[in-house]
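Case study 2.
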Amino acid sequence: MAAAEQTPLTGVAWAAAPEAAPAGWTVITVTVEGAAANLGKGFGHKGGGYLCVSTGGAQAAPGPVVTDVQVLSDRSPQPAGYTRAPEFPEPRTGVSRKKRVYVKLLPLDAAETAVFDIKLTSKSKALPHYMKIGEMGSFAIWCKKGPVLKPSPPPVPKPRTISAGLKQLSLQPDSDHRYVRLHVGASLTSLPAMDRVPFTLHPKFESKLSSGSNAIFADLNVKSLADIEKEYNYAFVVERTAAARLPPSVC
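Prediction:
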């Protein structure tokens, strides 16, 4: 059997013949050594019987997975939490079974480990990395278990924050002067010739500017928007468009 070791089994069953297994089930027809894996007449059918497994395929919603398999005598009680392996076709009433296969199923989210593969060998062979779960006819039955990999939750994007400086920066069109109004959030204290400055300052800075206490701006020459447009032949279309699109929370 070509085992899909990355996918947990979703079922283990009997099949009276390889063609008796429904779609979605894989019949174990050969042993690890290459011998026919017909479990013999003890299965209760004239032609013998085969173990088969299901991996569920691509499911819209993950179903239960096989977390354990037991091979017990027909005189042993059914283990709690296990179900008897189904048979294909349905078993005939009154047919005796010397051995029975029981399967434990759990939802994928609740399963920590699961069965990923089942193989058959001769009774004398050891199979590394597999656990022997019982014998039937002239064969030993082995299963391979492993941890269930849970899907990672989708990443949650961190909320975007706006710095204090950006919150204080506001670009708004001035309908009276066709200028861009700039509310400055820095520690600006003085700027001469305010009557020629093509922007307005936040009211809390106006009193400080009138004192003329900061000489660092004494030689500052501020050009009007009209002067810049004339000198560089630039109409500030991009800037006006960006200013018109700024969200209210930034302004």
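The longest helix spans residues 203-211.
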